[in-house]
Amino acid sequence: MAAPTNAISSRLTGFGTTIFAEMSALAVETDAINLGQGFPDTDGPREVLDAAITSINGGLNQYPPLPGMPVLREAIAAHQQRFYDIELDPATEIVVTAGATEALAGALLGMLDAGDEVIVFEPMYDSYRAGIAMADARAVPVLLAPDIDGNYVFDPAELQAAVTSRTKLVLLNTPHNPTGKVFTSEELQLIADVVVEHDLIAVTDEVYEHLVFDGRTHIPLSTLPGMAERTLTISSGGKTFHTTGWKIGWMSGPAPLVAAARTAKQFLTFVNGAPLQPAMAVGLGLPNSYFAGMRAGLQATRDRLVEALDSVGFITYTPEASYFVTADIRPLDPAGSGVDFCRQLPHRCGVVAIPNEVFYARPENGRHMVRFAFCKQMHVIEAAAEALAKGFST
Question: Helix H segments across the chain?
Answer without folding.
Answer: 19-30, 46-57, 70-84, 99-111, 127-134, 156-162, 185-197, 255-265, 276-284, 288-312, 338-349, 378-391
